[in-house]
Amino acid sequence: QVQLVESGGGLVQAGGSLRLSCAASGRTFSNYAMGWFRQAPGKEREFVASISSGGGITYYADSLKGRFTITRDNAKNTMYLQMHSLKPEDTAVYYCAARRGTRSSVKRSEYDFWGQGTQVTVSS
Q: Under a CB-based contact definition with an 8 Å cutoff, are residues 103 and 52 in contact?
């Protein structure tokens, strides 16, 4: 079992930045690929970004490339999502997820563990 706790969400003005963190516990963090997903009100949970277990391979939703950066620190059992140039449409609950193995995925169904989420609200 892996426990995931997100933090760093909040209210920010359009054009601002936030860094989300996802702290993991319970198993060897470096054995898991990780991902960020988000869910806006009335919408399905969607892929944001993912990272391999070693951190060397990352993927992003096409619409977010260049504004969001996913990283991880296996020594600290933590994953991050740096978000810049935030827009009102980025408003959502952001979830981190863990997937057994080295390869990440863009599919939410392929993740084994989920955090409770952190709210990001971008005002115009």
A: yes
Residue 18, H or E segment: strand 18-25
Q: What are phi and psi of 57, to 5 degrees?
A: -125, 125
Task: Output the CA–CA distances (angstroms, integers) from residue 66 to 70, 86, 90, in the order listed.
Answer: 11, 11, 14
Neighbours of 78 (CB within 10 A): 18
Residues 14 and 121: their CA atoms lie apart, in Å, by: 9
DSSP state of 27: S
Those residues of the chain that have pLDDT short of 70 are none
* The pair of three-digit structure tokens given for residue 5, joined into one six-digit string: 């706790």
The pLDDT, as a whole number, for residue 65 is 81
Distance between first and last Cα of the chain:
40
pLDDT tens, residue by residue, 78-106: 999 999 999 999 999 999 999 999 999 99
For the chain, how many residues are written? Answer: 124
